[in-house]
């Protein structure tokens, strides 16, 4: 697979997505261990639909997260809902395989994405949403500098329980 080093960190880089990776994304997006945290476990993702999504969104600030040491695809991230006039946007990311989680790859990818948003897209406020049970993600986002700004209480129902949707953001002036 051929990737391009658009945004480079110490251990990962962000590359434009490849349609050839659609099969890997489909595997991840049909895995409850991943989709429960994304809020998309009710969806069924087919290979054809994912190929179309990648083709349509590959130029829309959506990136593959690639491990630098071996050019291995480990996740996906992106900036969406960009409101240029208000200089606001939303980000999201996930790391696919459990073996690549809790290693700092997500925080590094998010740092690259946030810097890109502030430095190249002229954003001032970048927000994300996460579910209250996802403490690992919340800790990652705090490490990057995101702060909780509110909650939508009991807004996510999963496996017989309600969870809060946690809203977090970071301002340009809060970057190190």
From TrEMBL:
| Cell membrane as UniProt keyword | no
Q: Which UniProt keywords apply?
A: Transferase
Q: Name one GO molecular function term.
A: acyltransferase activity, transferring groups other than amino-acyl groups
Q: Which InterPro entries match?
A: Acyl_CoA_acyltransferase (IPR016181), GNAT_dom (IPR000182)
> Which ranges carry the N-acetyltransferase domain?
12-173
Taken from the record, one Pfam family name reads Acetyltransf_3
Identification of the protein by name: GNAT family N-acetyltransferase
UniProt organism field:
Anaerocolumna sedimenticola
């Amino acid at each position: 697979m051929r990737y391009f080093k658009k945004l480079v960190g110490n251990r990962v880089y962000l590359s434009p997505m490849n349609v050839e990776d659609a099969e890997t994304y489909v595997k991840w997006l049909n895995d409850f261990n991943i989709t429960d945290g994304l809020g998309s476990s009710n969806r069924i993702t087919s290979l054809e639909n994912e190929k179309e999504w990648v083709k349509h969104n590959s130029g829309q600030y959506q990136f593959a997260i690639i491990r630098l040491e071996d050019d291995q695809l480990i996740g996906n991230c992106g900036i969406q809902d960009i409101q240029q006039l208000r200089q606001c946007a939303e980000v999201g990311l996930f790391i696919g395989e459990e073996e690549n989680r809790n290693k700092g790859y997500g925080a590094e990818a998010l740092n690259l994405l946030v810097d890109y948003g502030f430095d190249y897209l002229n954003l001032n406020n970048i927000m994300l949403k996460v579910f209250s049970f996802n403490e690992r993600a919340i800790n990652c986002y705090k490490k990057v500098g995101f702060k909780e700004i509110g909650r939508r209480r009991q807004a996510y129902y999963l496996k017989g329980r309600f969870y809060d949707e946690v809203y977090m953001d970071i301002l340009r002036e809060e970057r190190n």
